[in-house]
Write a structure and sequence with these properties.
CATH class of chain B: Alpha Beta
Radius of gyration of chain A: 57 Å
Number of domains of chain B: 1
Distance between the termini of chain B: 29 Å
Number of strands of chain B: 6
Strand order of the largest sheet of chain A: 2-1-5-4-3
Distance between the termini of chain A: 44 Å
Strand order of the largest sheet of chain B: 1-3-2-4-5-6
Radius of gyration of chain B: 13 Å
Number of helices of chain A: 12
Order of helices and strands of chain B: EEHEHEHEHEH
CATH topology of one domain in chain A: Heat Shock Protein 90
Oligomer: heterodimer
CATH topology of chain B: Rossmann fold
CATH architecture of one domain in chain A: 2-Layer Sandwich
Largest interface: A-B, 25 and 19 residues
Order of helices and strands of chain A: HHHHEEHEEEHEEEEHHEHEEHEEHHEE
CATH superfamily of one domain in chain A: Histidine kinase-like ATPase, C-terminal domain
Strand content of chain B: 15-25%
Helix content of chain A: 40-55%
Largest sheet of chain A: 5 strands, antiparallel
Shape of chain A: rod-shaped
Helix content of chain B: 40-55%
CATH architecture of chain B: 3-Layer(aba) Sandwich
Number of helices of chain B: 5
Structural class of chain B: alpha/beta
Chain lengths: ~575, ~140
């Protein structure tokens, strides 16, 4: 898992965890990521957000319209039901006189007839002007009960027709009452015909109005007490939550939260009754349409995000890497050009000096030679041998100078690139020839172990001289006095010659090794090194189609390995010069 | 100006040294004379050509490559044009073989780098002389 996280981090942010001296490319990469994500995600977020908002509005309008339609339908149906009940009771009260209904046989027959039509009728009673139930038809024994104190009785006397809330009453069962009051002929007294209806009948009727299983439809009275059972809010006669002030005639519709869910609620008054019909449905956000829309939007967002990541991440990495590479190449080219110019200047200077010295050297050589010649043909004289010996010394010194000037001229003329077959051991010896004096002074020993029958490398002598001069100079600096530098060369993979230069110096830390080929990196004291030597060496080896590597540990010295191609690397596309 | 040191033996190899470094030319001439050559000296390219026009006819010319008035190349071209039988050995202080090779392409017999090894020089003079005899 840790490995996966590491790989993921490296994929997105390859600069993290690396050296912070990255020339600001990490920051550039981050800014590029920011810009790319901003221009990719902003329209995506806006599009999905606006689409969701519009879709939500449409769903809300749709569900509100449906609800209004449902509640109006329910209102009409329930009002028709109530009207029918009222008409029936009015008809009975109008058709039959108080005296007729006081006959038990008549009332029982009438009730049986009514129950045949509406099984919901529970009982029927005739209540005299004193509030006492005179006659009763039904399953309970309620004849003689005094209703004068009952709320509904008082109201029916004033309103002529009255429908009660659902209540328990004397029978202790939920029911409601439809009652009609009639004036006794020739008197200022009223008798009352009362029919009670089982609340189940009302509940069943209301439930048949419900056409959608997802909605909860029920009745409440004006105090907010449930008149039929609600799926969401509870049983009959419980208080309905969120009951708000209601103005008659209006259809109220609003959203409200209940137990962590959002509901859309609508209610309207049922005419000539104490009830309001209420329909509650779950909010749009719990509906299938919204959830499928939301799923689609999320899938689209996720898909687009993956697509953006797949495009942006490689794009940003490619742009940054290309930029970094281009900058590095430019820097390397500038450094190489400066270095080459420096070498060329040194070369020109060396050539000039060598040439100017060669002429007087030639004079000294010939004059001393002439002195020797003349002394050899002249007769013996005092100190002749000593003089001859001295002149020999002059000639030997001239020979030494000659070697030096020829070497300098050789170095200078190798500024131009010319590929040829080169014996590695000759080359190393040639380079060591430049450094003999310094090595002698510091008592540095050179050991050489070159494999037998080592093939020649195909390369440029001048550039190889620069490469090994740099490496050996560094080794000489590293070993100090009485050090040892070991040279070895062997065939590597049949196509390269691997030359190793191992010094007995103090070695380098892992961090130093990692940066040893970086331009301007130096461990030498200020003013003693430019930090370009090994960077140039690295560039030159690559240019010649070779490879350079370094191994070092503190206290165990340093080994540079330079692999050079035997064949013409330029034909194999390795040569970058 | 021309310095001449004529030898006394007729069949000695006649060598004209053309070099602006007079001290070098004189010393070399004396040493060659001690070794039975007949050397003569010219201290400039134009001096060398004048000597030839004045009737001097060396077997071999030792010609310095770099001189102030006329370069060794120019003198060489002129000599080979007017006196093709005379062999020329170039002397160069450059240390670069390219100068010598260029000279040989222009007709020089050989080249030798300063400071010269006398034994090697005499060897080359003799070879050049043999060639000069065979072609004249």
């Amino acid at each position: 898992m840790a490995d996966f996280l590491k790989k993921t981090r490296h994929f997105f942010f390859p600069f993290l965890g690396e050296d912070h001296t990255d020339g600001g490319y990490g920051r550039f990469r981050l800014m590029l990521y920011g810009a790319m994500f901003l221009i990719s995600f902003t329209p995506l977020i806006l599009a999905t957000g606006l689409s969701s908002r519009e879709h939500k509005k449409l769903l809300q309008i749709q569900e509100q319209e449906q609800l209004v339609s449902s509640i109006e339908g329910a209102q009409n149906t329930i009002e028709a039901f109530i009207h029918e009940l009222q008409s029936m009771v009015r008809f009975v009260a109008g058709e039959y006189s108080y005296e007729e209904l006081l006959e038990q046989g008549r009332i029982s027959e009438l009730f049986a007839h009514l129950k045949g039509q509406y099984p919901g009728f529970v009982d029927m009673g005739v209540i005299g002007p004193d509030g006492i139930q005179k006659k009763y038809a039904g399953p309970f024994r309620l004849e003689g009960y005094d209703y004068s104190e009952q709320d509904w009785y008082v109201k029916v006397l004033t309103r002529q027709l009255y429908i009660s809330d659902v209540f328990m009453g004397f029978r202790k069962l939920p029911h409601f009452v439809i009652a009609v009051s009639n004036k006794l002929p020739g008197k200022e007294e009223y008798w009352v015909l009362r029919l009670s209806v089982d609340y189940e009948t009302l509940a069943n009727y209301v439930s048949t109005v419900n056409t959608r299983p997802s909605q909860d439809i029920f009745l409440v009275n004006n105090q907010g007490r449930l008149q039929t059972k609600s799926i969401i809010f509870g049983d009959i006669l419980d208080m309905c939550p969120f009951f708000t002030h209601y103005k008659k005639g209006e259809t109220v519709i609003h959203y409200s939260d209940y137990k962590g869910k959002k509901y859309l609620r609508s209610y309207v008054q049922i005419k000539n009754s104490p009830w309001m019909v209420v329909i509650v449905i779950e909010g749009y956000m719990y509906g299938e349409k919204w959830s499928s829309h939301r799923l689609r939007v999320r899938m689209i967002f996720l898909g687009c995000t993956v697509l953006i990541l797949l495009v942006v991440v490689p794009l940003v990495n490619t742009i940054t890497n290309r930029l970094q590479e281009a900058d590095q190449n430019r820097n390397q080219a500038v450094i190489e050009s400066q270095y080459t110019n420096k070498f060329a200047s040194i070369g020109r200077l060396a050539a000039g000096v060598a040439h100017e010295i060669n002429n007087p050297l030639a004079i000294i050589d010939q004059k001393a030679g002439l002195v020797t010649d003349l002394m050899e043909i002249s007769e013996e004289f005092e100190h002749k041998d000593k003089l001859l010996h001295s002149v020999d010394g002059i000639l030997t010194a001239v020979q030494r100078c000659k070697v030096i000037t020829h070497r300098l001229l050789g170095f200078a003329r190798r500024m131009d690139v010319a590929f040829e077959h080169i014996d590695v051991s000759d080359l190393i010896n040639e380079v060591l020839g430049f450094l003999e004096g310094e090595a002698l002074y510091s008592r540095i020993r050179f050991e050489k172990y070159f494999a037998e029958n080592l093939p020649m490398v195909f390369s440029d002598r001048g550039q190889l001289q620069q490469i090994f001069l740099n490496i050996i100079n560094n080794a000489i600096d590293a070993v100090g006095k009485d050090g040892l530098i070991v040279f070895s060369a062997e065939l590597d993979n049949r196509t390269m010659v691997n030359i190793k230069i191992k010094d007995s110096g103090p070695g380098m830390s892992h961090e130093t090794v990692k940066r040893i080929f970086d331009p301007f990196f130096t461990t030498k004291e200020a003013g003693k090194g430019t930090g370009l030597g090994l960077s140039i060496t690295y560039g030159l080896v690559n240019k010649l189609g070779g490879k350079i590597s370094v191994e070092s540990k503190i206290g165990q010295g340093t080994t540079f390995s330079v692999c050079l191609p035997i064949n013409d690397a330029r034909n194999e596309g390795n040569y970058s010069g | 100006m021309m310095h001449a040191m004529r030898g006394t033996i007729v069949d000695k190899i006649r060598v004209l040294i053309v070099d602006d470094e007079i001290e070098f030319g004189e010393a070399l001439a004396e040493r060659l004379a001690l070794r039975n050559f007949l050397p003569e000296i010219a201290d400039s390219g134009s001096g060398g050509l004048e000597a030839l026009e004045g009737g001097l006819h060396p077997d071999v010319i030792l010609l310095d490559l770099k001189m102030p008035d006329m370069s060794g190349f120019d003198v060489l071209v002129e000599v080979k044009r007017k006196y093709p039988s005379i062999e020329v050995i170039m002397l160069t202080g450059h240390g670069a073989a390219t100068g010598g090779i260029d000279s040989m392409e222009r007709g020089a017999f050989d080249f030798i780098m300063k400071p010269v090894d006398l034994a090697e020089l005499m060897e080359k003079i003799k070879l050049a002389y043999k060639k000069s005899i065979s072609t004249s």
